[in-house]
Design a protein that fits this description.
alpha+beta, binds zinc ion, 4 strands, about 100 residues, two-stranded antiparallel sheet, flat, single chain
C-alpha cells in the first residue's frame, strides 16, 4: 500500500517518461560518438592489426571474416548502419535513364 501511495503522491515525475528520456539521451550520445569517433579499436587484436600465431614470436596479420584487414580498427555498428542508409538513399536518388 505504501508503494501505491508513494506513486500517487509523486505525480510530477513520470517513471515512463524518465526511462524514455534516459533511452533518448543514450541514443543521442551514441549518435554523437558515431559521428565524432566512427572507429573503435579492434578487440580481437587490441588495435595492433596482427595476432600471435601460437606461443612464439610469430605474428600473423589480422585478416579473415572477423578480422580488421590489419588496420587495427573497426567501424562502429551505428556508423555502419548510417553508411548503409546513406548508400541506400543515394542509390534511390540515382537517375536510371
Ligand atoms: Zn584486428
Amino acid at each position: 500500500m505504501y508503494l501505491l501511495a508513494a506513486t500517487a503522491t509523486h505525480t510530477t515525475i513520470n517513471p515512463g517518461l524518465l526511462i524514455f528520456l534516459l533511452a533518448a539521451g543514450r541514443a543521442v550520445w551514441y549518435a554523437a560518438l558515431c559521428a565524432v569517433r566512427p572507429f573503435k579499436r579492434h578487440r580481437r587484436c587490441q588495435g595492433l592489426g596482427r595476432l600471435h600465431a601460437g606461443g612464439g614470436r610469430i605474428w600473423k596479420p589480422c585478416k579473415g571474416w572477423r578480422g580488421c584487414r590489419s588496420t587495427g580498427v573497426r567501424l562502429r555498428l551505428g556508423r555502419r548502419v548510417y553508411a548503409y542508409l546513406k548508400r541506400t538513399r543515394q542509390a534511390g536518388q540515382r537517375r536510371t535513364y
